[in-house]
Amino acid sequence: MVIYLSGELGAGKTTLVRGLLRALGVRARVKSPTYTLVEPYVVSKLYLYHFDFYRFSRSDEWAEAGFRDYFNRDAVCLVEWPEKAGGQLPAPDLRIVMNVNESSRSITVDADTEAGQDCLARLTP
Ligand SMILES: Nc1ncnc2c1ncn2[C@@H]1O[C@H](COP(=O)(O)OP(=O)(O)OP(=O)(O)O)[C@@H](O)[C@H]1O
Ligand SMILES: [Mg+2]
User: Fold this and answer.
1) Measuring CA to CA, how many Å separate 104 from each of 11, 78, 99, 107?
2) pLDDT tens digits, one per residue of 22-40
3) Which of 10, 35, 52, 102 has the fewest CB atoms inside 10 Å of its own CB, making it the most exposed?
């Protein structure tokens, strides 16, 4: 599963991932991957990789960094700043966009694949 998280600096992308990991039972510190680029988590048989590509400046840096193997069928990849990774980043199952306005916040979730739709169907009553 590949989940893109978009939104300006400080929109709440890392906070959302932290909440998701806490809900899955992860007790370890959930750090922003701004400097490490990726933070891995294992929950039962599930591998979750939290990426932040904000620091990428060239579109081929993602491929050079060797992250392709992380995007496999046993993994959930949560990606902050996917737009910085260039066109070779695998397409998302879910696209989450967070917006901060003067007095309110909003979030949009779109499913691009059947797996993504299945995920959304489980969320909505
Ligand atoms: N829904 C929310 N309401 C109020 N404050 C929030 C909310 N979500 C996040 N914050 C606060 O905003 C700050 C930035 O959040 P966060 O680090 O999650 O942003 P980000 O989108 O990951 O930013 P970056 O692009 O720099 O990685 C934090 O101090 C966090 O506590
Ligand atoms: Mg962040």
Assistant:
1) 11, 24, 9, 10
2) 999 999 999 999 999 999 9
3) 102
Q: Ligand 1, residue 9: give the atom nearest the CA.
A: 25
Q: Are 89 and 59 in contact (CB under 8 A)?
A: no
Closest C-alpha to 49, from 10, 83, 90, 12: 90
Which residue's C-alpha comes closest to atom 31 of ligand 1?
A: 15
Residue ranges of the domains in the chain?
Answer: 2-123
118: number of CA atoms within 13 Å, CB side? 5
Q: State the distance from the centre of ligand 1 to the C-alpha of 79, rounded, in angstroms.
A: 15
- Percentage with pLDDT > 90 across the chain: 86
Give 79's strand partners. 4, 51
